[in-house]
Write a structure and sequence with these properties.
Elements: E1 8-9, E2 20-23, E3 31-38, E4 41-55, E5 58-63, E6 66-70, E7 76-80, E8 84-91, H1 113-132, H2 137-156, H3 163-185, H4 192-199, H5 203-214, H6 218-236, H7 241-247, H8 253-264, H9 268-274, H10 278-282, E9 293-295
Parallel strand pairs: 1-3, 6-9
Antiparallel strand pairs: 2-8, 3-7, 4-5, 4-6, 4-7, 4-8
Pfam families: AraC_binding (PF02311), HTH_18 (PF12833)
Protein name: AraC family transcriptional regulator
InterPro entries: AraC-bd, Homeodomain-like_sf, HTH-like, HTH_AraC, HTH_AraC-typ_CS, RmlC-like_jellyroll, Tscrpt_reg_AraC-type_HTH
């Protein structure tokens, strides 16, 4: 499985490359990743199956050949009730530093259908090259990536954005510092009151910040951070379920199991038995798709 975490994500590019490319971890279906955000630009391109994508309180159903582009600090959620094969490309915001506005900001929107098809084709080529890893594949991927970056800044970049978008972006930057602290201390008893005191806010104000700008309440957010770290131990270790729960801040195994079942549709021990490696999924079914549509944020 990949290393995406359900929180304010820190994107670590693949070694030697200015981006991160992988298959979406919900490929087996019955998977939910609730509201989260990150500084990076993110593209989800569906090769097979179907995804339900939630962006700015709107739902988009993505079928094979569709993709969605997520801007920096844009709150989004993904539901995968059915099996799918979805390419995910994450691009650190700093890649676009030369194209920032005066507010140190860049925003992407929609372009024409021909550009959509070209973007999907580039992602498909990068995906296949990464899976096959033939001699020089890194150069091929970089070539496609720079073409993609060119399309984004020349065809998809939006110069006029509303005040509400700018305000939300600034607030999520502030929240990013707070969630960064939570990433380091999530195993502790970090109450809303304690966190608010550390950052100089009242508990009520901090609670409103989470709800208004991250679209999730503080308690749910902290639980989700704990869950993602616990899931990694579930996948990568032989530790008992109860031990994993306690190691990651849950009061007991029941609390962990209840939250896990809500998100994954199964109990932790069932998940452990059925989980398959991303490498196995990545090495099969390189089937191209001719058409594509972009759903806008």
């Amino acid at each position: 499985m990949n290393d995406i975490v359900y929180q304010h994500e820190v994107i670590v590019p693949d070694r030697g490359l200015p981006f991160k490319l992988f298959l979406f971890e919900g490929g087996g279906g019955k998977y939910i990743r609730e509201k989260h955000w990150h500084r990076s630009i993110e593209i989800f391109a569906v090769r097979q199956g179907q995804l339900e994508f939630f962006l700015n309180e709107k739902k988009y159903v993505l079928a094979a050949g569709d993709f969605v582009l997520v801007n920096s600090n844009e709150v989004h959620a993904i539901h995968a009730p059915l099996p799918n094969e979805t390419i995910v490309l994450q691009i650190p915001l700093a890649v676009f530093a030369d194209y920032y506005t005066e507010e140190q900001f860049i925003w992407f929107s929609h372009s024409g259908k021909e550009d959509d098809r070209q973007v999907f084709s580039l992602l498909e080529t990068m995906f296949v090259a990464y899976g096959e890893k033939q001699t020089g594949y890194e150069l091929k991927m970089l070539s496609c990536f720079y073409q993609l970056e060119y399309l984004l800044v020349t065809r998809y970049r939006k110069f006029e954005v509303g005040e509400e978008i700018l305000k939300n972006n600034k607030q999520l930057k502030r929240l990013g510092r707070i969630t960064g602290y939570l990433k380091e201390h999530y195993t502790e008893d970090v109450s809303l009151e304690k966190l608010a005191g550390i950052f100089g806010y009242s508990p009520a104000y901090l609670s409103r910040m989470f709800q208004k700008y991250a679209k999730i309440n503080y308690k749910e957010y902290l639980s989700s951070v704990r869950l993602e770290h616990a899931v990694r131990d579930l996948e990568e270790t032989d530790l008992a379920i109860g031990e994993i729960a306690l190691n990651h801040g849950f009061p007991n195994s029941k609390a962990f199991s209840n939250l896990f079942r809500k998100r994954y549709g199964m109990l932790p021990n069932q998940y452990r038995k059925t989980v398959t490696s991303e490498k196995e999924r990545f090495s099969s079914h390189y089937l191209p798709h001719k058409g594509s549509r972009l759903f806008l944020m």
